[in-house]
From TrEMBL:
This is Hydroxyacid dehydrogenase. InterPro entries: D-isomer_2-hydroxyacid_DH, D-isomer_2_OHA_DH_cat_dom, D-isomer_DH_CS1, D-isomer_DH_NAD-bd, NAD(P)-bd_dom_sf. The keyword NAD applies. Residues 109-282 form the D-isomer specific 2-hydroxyacid dehydrogenase NAD-binding domain. GO terms for cellular component: cytosol. Belongs to the D-isomer specific 2-hydroxyacid dehydrogenase family. Residues 44-313 form the D-isomer specific 2-hydroxyacid dehydrogenase catalytic domain. Keywords: NAD, NADP, Oxidoreductase. SUPFAM superfamilies: Formate/glycerate dehydrogenase catalytic domain-like (SSF52283), NAD(P)-binding Rossmann-fold domains (SSF51735). GO terms for molecular function: glyoxylate reductase (NADPH) activity; hydroxypyruvate reductase [NAD(P)H] activity; NAD binding.
Amino acid sequence: MSRIRILQVCRIDRHVDEQLDQAYEVLRLWEQGDKPGYIEQHGKAVRGMVTTARDGVDVAWLEGLPDLQVVSSLGVGYDTIDVPALHARNIQFGNTPDVLNDCVADMALALLLASSRKLLPADRFVRDGSWGRRQSFPLAGSVAGKNLGIVGLGKIGQAVARRAEGFGMQIRYHNRSRNDQVAYGYEPTLVGLAEWADFLVLTCPGGAATHHMVSRDILEALGGDGTLVNVSRGSVVDERALLDALSHGKLGAAALDVFEDEPNAPAELFAMDNVVLCPHVGSATVETRRKMGQLVLDNLGHFFKHGRVLTPVDG
Protein backbone atom coordinates (compact mmCIF):
# COMPACT_ATOMS: atom_id res chain seq x y z
CA MET A 1 0.00 0.00 0.00
CA SER A 2 1.48 3.36 -1.01
CA ARG A 3 2.20 5.92 1.66
CA ILE A 4 0.67 9.39 1.83
CA ARG A 5 2.77 11.84 -0.14
CA ILE A 6 3.73 15.13 1.52
CA LEU A 7 5.76 18.10 0.39
CA GLN A 8 8.35 19.27 2.92
CA VAL A 9 9.32 22.87 2.16
CA CYS A 10 12.43 22.98 4.38
CA ARG A 11 14.34 21.00 6.94
CA ILE A 12 12.83 21.12 10.44
CA ASP A 13 15.20 19.12 12.67
CA ARG A 14 16.60 15.61 12.70
CA HIS A 15 13.82 14.14 14.85
CA VAL A 16 10.98 15.64 12.80
CA ASP A 17 12.65 14.88 9.46
CA GLU A 18 13.19 11.23 10.45
CA GLN A 19 9.61 10.84 11.70
CA LEU A 20 8.25 12.29 8.48
CA ASP A 21 10.40 9.93 6.42
CA GLN A 22 9.14 6.94 8.39
CA ALA A 23 5.46 7.85 8.14
CA TYR A 24 5.13 9.42 4.69
CA GLU A 25 6.52 9.62 1.21
CA VAL A 26 8.38 12.91 1.52
CA LEU A 27 9.21 15.25 -1.35
CA ARG A 28 12.06 17.54 -0.24
CA LEU A 29 11.36 20.88 -1.87
CA TRP A 30 14.44 22.60 -0.39
CA GLU A 31 16.69 20.30 -2.41
CA GLN A 32 15.19 21.43 -5.73
CA GLY A 33 16.65 24.21 -7.84
CA ASP A 34 13.48 24.72 -9.86
CA LYS A 35 10.78 24.56 -7.20
CA PRO A 36 7.79 25.49 -9.40
CA GLY A 37 8.89 22.99 -12.04
CA TYR A 38 9.34 20.28 -9.43
CA ILE A 39 5.87 20.90 -8.00
CA GLU A 40 4.34 20.87 -11.47
CA GLN A 41 5.98 17.51 -12.16
CA HIS A 42 5.39 15.78 -8.81
CA GLY A 43 2.67 17.74 -7.01
CA LYS A 44 -0.52 16.04 -8.18
CA ALA A 45 -0.58 13.34 -5.51
CA VAL A 46 0.65 15.52 -2.64
CA ARG A 47 -1.89 15.54 0.19
CA GLY A 48 0.05 17.31 2.94
CA MET A 49 2.66 20.04 3.30
CA VAL A 50 5.12 20.82 6.08
CA THR A 51 6.67 24.27 6.35
CA THR A 52 7.73 26.90 8.90
CA ALA A 53 6.62 30.42 9.75
CA ARG A 54 9.90 31.61 8.21
CA ASP A 55 9.65 29.68 4.93
CA GLY A 56 5.90 29.99 4.46
CA VAL A 57 3.83 28.85 1.49
CA ASP A 58 4.06 30.38 -1.98
CA VAL A 59 0.46 30.74 -3.19
CA ALA A 60 1.66 30.03 -6.74
CA TRP A 61 2.55 26.49 -5.64
CA LEU A 62 -1.11 25.68 -4.93
CA GLU A 63 -2.01 25.45 -8.60
CA GLY A 64 0.35 22.50 -8.90
CA LEU A 65 -0.98 20.82 -5.75
CA PRO A 66 -4.62 19.97 -6.62
CA ASP A 67 -4.86 17.19 -4.01
CA LEU A 68 -3.39 19.18 -1.10
CA GLN A 69 -5.55 18.84 2.01
CA VAL A 70 -3.47 20.09 4.93
CA VAL A 71 -0.52 22.36 5.76
CA SER A 72 1.31 21.92 9.07
CA SER A 73 3.68 24.75 9.99
CA LEU A 74 6.37 25.11 12.66
CA GLY A 75 5.83 28.42 14.43
CA VAL A 76 2.96 30.46 15.78
CA GLY A 77 3.10 33.22 13.14
CA TYR A 78 1.56 32.85 9.70
CA ASP A 79 2.14 36.22 8.03
CA THR A 80 4.13 34.33 5.33
CA ILE A 81 1.15 32.04 4.68
CA ASP A 82 -2.05 33.14 2.96
CA VAL A 83 -4.46 31.24 5.19
CA PRO A 84 -7.63 32.50 3.41
CA ALA A 85 -6.18 31.21 0.11
CA LEU A 86 -5.72 27.80 1.73
CA HIS A 87 -9.22 27.79 3.16
CA ALA A 88 -10.66 28.82 -0.21
CA ARG A 89 -9.30 25.51 -1.50
CA ASN A 90 -10.58 23.59 1.54
CA ILE A 91 -7.03 23.11 2.81
CA GLN A 92 -6.69 22.98 6.59
CA PHE A 93 -3.84 24.86 8.24
CA GLY A 94 -2.29 24.15 11.63
CA ASN A 95 0.48 26.01 13.45
CA THR A 96 2.26 25.42 16.78
CA PRO A 97 0.80 27.85 19.35
CA ASP A 98 1.09 27.78 23.15
CA VAL A 99 4.09 25.44 23.37
CA LEU A 100 6.43 28.41 22.79
CA ASN A 101 4.71 31.00 25.00
CA ASP A 102 7.01 30.70 28.00
CA CYS A 103 10.15 30.54 25.92
CA VAL A 104 9.35 33.72 23.97
CA ALA A 105 8.29 35.49 27.16
CA ASP A 106 11.61 34.53 28.75
CA MET A 107 13.37 36.04 25.75
CA ALA A 108 11.42 39.28 26.04
CA LEU A 109 12.47 39.70 29.66
CA ALA A 110 16.05 38.70 28.85
CA LEU A 111 16.21 41.39 26.17
CA LEU A 112 14.62 43.95 28.45
CA LEU A 113 17.10 43.23 31.26
CA ALA A 114 20.10 43.07 28.92
CA SER A 115 19.19 46.51 27.61
CA SER A 116 18.36 48.19 30.90
CA ARG A 117 21.41 46.80 32.75
CA LYS A 118 23.77 47.33 29.79
CA LEU A 119 24.88 43.70 29.86
CA LEU A 120 26.53 43.66 26.43
CA PRO A 121 28.67 46.79 27.01
CA ALA A 122 29.48 45.45 30.49
CA ASP A 123 30.67 42.16 29.01
CA ARG A 124 32.91 44.02 26.55
CA PHE A 125 34.18 46.25 29.38
CA VAL A 126 35.51 43.19 31.20
CA ARG A 127 36.83 41.42 28.09
CA ASP A 128 38.77 44.41 26.70
CA GLY A 129 40.55 45.03 30.00
CA SER A 130 38.86 48.33 30.84
CA TRP A 131 37.85 47.05 34.27
CA GLY A 132 41.40 45.91 34.92
CA ARG A 133 42.61 49.41 34.12
CA ARG A 134 40.43 50.72 36.94
CA GLN A 135 38.05 52.49 34.61
CA SER A 136 34.50 53.05 35.84
CA PHE A 137 31.59 51.41 34.04
CA PRO A 138 28.63 53.78 33.62
CA LEU A 139 25.54 53.30 35.75
CA ALA A 140 22.68 51.30 34.22
CA GLY A 141 18.93 51.53 34.84
CA SER A 142 16.71 49.51 37.14
CA VAL A 143 13.47 47.88 36.01
CA ALA A 144 11.85 47.70 39.45
CA GLY A 145 8.80 49.94 39.61
CA LYS A 146 9.10 50.98 35.95
CA ASN A 147 6.18 51.12 33.51
CA LEU A 148 5.87 48.20 31.10
CA GLY A 149 3.58 48.56 28.09
CA ILE A 150 2.65 45.39 26.23
CA VAL A 151 1.36 45.56 22.67
CA GLY A 152 -0.76 42.47 22.07
CA LEU A 153 -1.86 40.85 25.32
CA GLY A 154 -2.38 37.35 23.97
CA LYS A 155 -0.92 34.29 25.65
CA ILE A 156 2.69 35.38 25.07
CA GLY A 157 1.92 38.92 26.21
CA GLN A 158 0.29 37.61 29.37
CA ALA A 159 3.32 35.40 30.03
CA VAL A 160 5.53 38.49 29.72
CA ALA A 161 3.27 40.36 32.15
CA ARG A 162 3.44 37.60 34.75
CA ARG A 163 7.23 37.65 34.64
CA ALA A 164 7.35 41.44 34.82
CA GLU A 165 5.15 41.40 37.93
CA GLY A 166 8.00 39.55 39.65
CA PHE A 167 10.22 42.58 39.02
CA GLY A 168 7.66 44.94 40.52
CA MET A 169 6.86 46.59 37.20
CA GLN A 170 3.64 48.49 36.54
CA ILE A 171 1.81 46.94 33.56
CA ARG A 172 -0.58 48.27 30.96
CA TYR A 173 -1.45 46.94 27.51
CA HIS A 174 -2.90 47.87 24.16
CA ASN A 175 -5.09 45.49 22.12
CA ARG A 176 -7.70 46.03 19.47
CA SER A 177 -10.16 45.60 22.36
CA ARG A 178 -10.06 45.37 26.15
CA ASN A 179 -9.43 41.95 27.73
CA ASP A 180 -11.83 41.74 30.67
CA GLN A 181 -10.12 38.59 31.96
CA VAL A 182 -7.01 40.45 33.14
CA ALA A 183 -6.45 43.08 35.82
CA TYR A 184 -3.84 45.11 33.92
CA GLY A 185 -4.62 48.62 32.80
CA TYR A 186 -5.91 49.02 29.24
CA GLU A 187 -4.72 51.82 26.96
CA PRO A 188 -7.13 52.33 24.03
CA THR A 189 -4.44 53.94 21.85
CA LEU A 190 -0.93 52.79 21.10
CA VAL A 191 0.44 56.33 21.34
CA GLY A 192 -1.08 56.64 24.81
CA LEU A 193 0.62 53.43 25.90
CA ALA A 194 3.95 54.58 24.46
CA GLU A 195 3.74 57.93 26.26
CA TRP A 196 3.14 56.13 29.58
CA ALA A 197 5.66 53.31 29.17
CA ASP A 198 9.33 53.11 30.09
CA PHE A 199 9.55 49.81 28.20
CA LEU A 200 7.31 48.90 25.25
CA VAL A 201 7.25 45.17 24.50
CA LEU A 202 5.78 43.93 21.21
CA THR A 203 4.08 40.52 21.34
CA CYS A 204 1.45 41.12 18.64
CA PRO A 205 1.05 39.16 15.37
CA GLY A 206 2.68 40.23 12.12
CA GLY A 207 0.85 40.74 8.84
CA ALA A 208 -0.92 43.57 7.06
CA ALA A 209 -2.98 44.65 10.07
CA THR A 210 0.10 45.47 12.17
CA HIS A 211 2.54 46.52 9.43
CA HIS A 212 4.62 49.50 10.66
CA MET A 213 2.16 49.96 13.53
CA VAL A 214 5.10 51.18 15.62
CA SER A 215 5.70 54.31 13.58
CA ARG A 216 7.85 57.39 14.03
CA ASP A 217 5.14 58.97 16.20
CA ILE A 218 4.99 55.94 18.49
CA LEU A 219 8.77 55.82 18.88
CA GLU A 220 8.93 59.52 19.69
CA ALA A 221 6.10 59.08 22.20
CA LEU A 222 8.15 56.36 23.90
CA GLY A 223 10.93 58.91 23.99
CA GLY A 224 14.58 59.39 24.72
CA ASP A 225 14.39 57.47 28.00
CA GLY A 226 12.22 54.66 26.61
CA THR A 227 13.15 51.20 25.39
CA LEU A 228 11.51 49.18 22.59
CA VAL A 229 11.59 45.38 22.90
CA ASN A 230 10.43 43.37 19.88
CA VAL A 231 9.85 39.60 20.01
CA SER A 232 6.93 39.63 17.55
CA ARG A 233 7.70 40.38 13.89
CA GLY A 234 10.06 42.88 12.32
CA SER A 235 7.29 44.19 10.08
CA VAL A 236 5.46 45.65 13.08
CA VAL A 237 8.14 48.38 13.40
CA ASP A 238 8.99 51.05 10.84
CA GLU A 239 12.67 50.15 10.79
CA ARG A 240 13.82 53.32 9.05
CA ALA A 241 12.03 55.41 11.67
CA LEU A 242 13.60 53.26 14.39
CA LEU A 243 17.11 53.86 13.07
CA ASP A 244 16.46 57.59 12.92
CA ALA A 245 15.03 57.70 16.45
CA LEU A 246 17.96 55.77 17.92
CA SER A 247 20.53 57.85 16.03
CA HIS A 248 19.09 61.19 17.15
CA GLY A 249 18.24 60.41 20.77
CA LYS A 250 14.49 60.33 20.17
CA LEU A 251 14.42 56.74 21.51
CA GLY A 252 16.56 55.59 24.38
CA ALA A 253 17.24 51.98 23.42
CA ALA A 254 16.00 48.96 21.49
CA ALA A 255 16.27 45.23 22.10
CA LEU A 256 15.34 43.29 18.98
CA ASP A 257 14.94 39.61 18.18
CA VAL A 258 13.25 40.22 14.80
CA PHE A 259 13.81 42.42 11.74
CA GLU A 260 11.99 43.43 8.59
CA ASP A 261 14.32 41.67 6.14
CA GLU A 262 15.69 38.67 8.00
CA PRO A 263 18.46 37.65 8.17
CA ASN A 264 19.57 41.12 7.05
CA ALA A 265 19.54 43.30 10.15
CA PRO A 266 20.34 46.95 9.33
CA ALA A 267 24.10 47.49 9.50
CA GLU A 268 23.53 50.90 11.12
CA LEU A 269 22.49 49.09 14.30
CA PHE A 270 25.78 47.23 14.71
CA ALA A 271 27.78 50.14 16.14
CA MET A 272 25.06 51.31 18.53
CA ASP A 273 25.70 50.60 22.21
CA ASN A 274 22.05 51.27 23.05
CA VAL A 275 20.86 48.27 21.01
CA VAL A 276 20.69 44.54 21.77
CA LEU A 277 20.40 42.30 18.70
CA CYS A 278 19.43 38.62 18.47
CA PRO A 279 18.86 36.41 15.38
CA HIS A 280 15.14 35.57 15.84
CA VAL A 281 15.74 33.00 18.58
CA GLY A 282 12.75 33.69 20.83
CA SER A 283 11.59 30.08 20.70
CA ALA A 284 15.02 28.57 20.05
CA THR A 285 15.57 26.28 22.99
CA VAL A 286 15.97 22.52 22.77
CA GLU A 287 12.90 21.95 24.92
CA THR A 288 10.57 24.30 23.05
CA ARG A 289 11.66 23.34 19.56
CA ARG A 290 11.12 19.69 20.48
CA LYS A 291 7.54 20.48 21.51
CA MET A 292 6.97 22.56 18.38
CA GLY A 293 8.32 19.82 16.12
CA GLN A 294 6.12 17.23 17.77
CA LEU A 295 3.06 19.41 17.25
CA VAL A 296 3.91 19.70 13.54
CA LEU A 297 3.88 15.89 13.38
CA ASP A 298 0.76 15.61 15.53
CA ASN A 299 -1.20 18.11 13.41
CA LEU A 300 -0.37 16.16 10.28
CA GLY A 301 -1.06 12.74 11.81
CA HIS A 302 -4.31 13.82 13.45
CA PHE A 303 -5.59 15.23 10.17
CA PHE A 304 -4.96 12.06 8.22
CA LYS A 305 -6.54 9.96 10.98
CA HIS A 306 -9.46 12.17 12.03
CA GLY A 307 -9.88 14.74 9.25
CA ARG A 308 -8.83 17.81 11.27
CA VAL A 309 -5.67 19.35 12.68
CA LEU A 310 -5.24 19.76 16.42
CA THR A 311 -4.47 23.49 16.33
CA PRO A 312 -6.35 25.01 13.39
CA VAL A 313 -5.94 28.63 12.36
CA ASP A 314 -9.23 30.23 11.38
CA GLY A 315 -7.83 33.49 9.99
